Amino acid sequence: MSVVILGSGQLAKMLAEAGNEIGISSTFVVKHGVSADPVGGLGEVHRHDSDDQAQACLDSLPNVTAVTVETENTASSLLSLLSESFPVRPNTACVVACQNREHERQLLDQLNIPTAPHAVAREHSALTSVVEQIGFPLVLKTLSEGYDGKGQWVVESAKEWESLDQSTLTLPLLVEKKIDFIREISLIGVRSPEGEIRFYPPAENIHIGGILIASFAPAANLSNTILQQAETNLTKLMEHLDYQGVMAMECFQTADGLLVNELAPRVHNSGHWTMDSDVTSQFENHMRAITGKPLGITQTQKHTLMLNILGEIPAGLSAAPEPFSLYDYRKSARPGRKVGHLNLQYSDSKSLVSALHTLAKVWPNEFVQTLITQIKD
Ligand code: ATP
Ligand code: MG
Ligand code: MG
């Protein structure tokens, strides 16, 4: 079997590696000028400058079982064109629904899935009234292209709003209530062509400055009510979209239940813990689902911490200190960029704290200390 991955970053790399393990080969189709360092040696890389050229690349391949994406920000025109001749999985509509925050909210509203109170300001003249309608504190978000908190501004108070130079804002913007959540969790599910759905246990996610820095899986002390709410919501979404593959749903847990923050029609950073657990990894399950192979195990008896490495791989981490496993994405260093991650399996909070202290010796940063404060018994 052979899969075409539109993209060449770390998610493409991890998908291809998982595919290799189960006899699925991968070819990468990417725009000219985009680095393919992460996927080096894993399969052919085809370059294109236009949708037609990309289609010509695919037409030249002997057999294509499925085409998939590593990011929702894949041009909808390309996905639509390829769908005419190839099985695009998840289907184009699923990916397009997650490209624009307004469309994503419309989908969630339509399915009665709770989200933070929000409204869209389309032009400057409407901004003040939308801001007043939502109330402070609030978050302004660009409708598309944002990731890792880019394109977002938190406004805590009316005073802060008045001192903001509104002319620096580019409209339209999603104006959203800032939620005083208990914590952030994400649910990752996988759906087969026959409609079988399996869920991984939700992870608890720690963000700093809008960037995911760590996931604890499974999330500690998760009530059955919250778990059911999460699984019901993601089931509704996947069934509505006739989804095929892995999908992630990011949520805020509040005293009144879950609010969905955003959706990812793909494998997700908060699921990287599945590479070092007693489950089938999210990458393998995605490859299984899109090629029609039976789904693998998603329930775990273990505890795993996933720690993102931002900026560059610290020199002291050239080898992962026991008992961590290190994943190096082979990306060039850039401040705040996700260049790798560490996974750690732990048996209890005591051994987790002790492993983090070991890590602090080779990786002196505020994250380790912040994480230690997040550990629950
Ligand atoms: P990602 O890299 O996950 O795609 P993104 O740039 O698309 O991120 P969001 O997921 O919307 O952005 O926001 C990033 C983080 O910012 C959230 O995980 C959360 O920590 C914080 N955040 C976003 N919206 C809100 C909100 N309404 N209230 C409180 N915190 C928020
Ligand atoms: Mg996002
Ligand atoms: Mg997010």
Word description of this protein:
The structure is a single chain. The chain is α+β, with helices and mostly antiparallel strands. The protein is 30% helix and 27% strand. It has eleven helices and 17 strands. Strands 9, 10, 11, 12, 13, 14, 15, 16 and 17 form a nine-stranded antiparallel beta sheet that branches. The protein has a four-stranded parallel beta sheet with strand order 3-2-1-4, sandwiched between helices. A four-stranded antiparallel beta sheet has the order 5-8-6-7. Bound molecules: adenosine-5'-triphosphate and magnesium ion (2 copies). Residues 116, 139, 146-150, 176, 178-179, 184, 207, 210, 250, 261-262 line the site of adenosine-5'-triphosphate (ATP). Residues 147, 262 line the site of one magnesium ion (MG). It is an enzyme of class 6 (ligase). This is N5-carboxyaminoimidazole ribonucleotide synthase. Catalyzes the ATP-dependent conversion of 5-aminoimidazole ribonucleotide (AIR) and HCO(3)(-) to N5-carboxyaminoimidazole ribonucleotide (N5-CAIR).
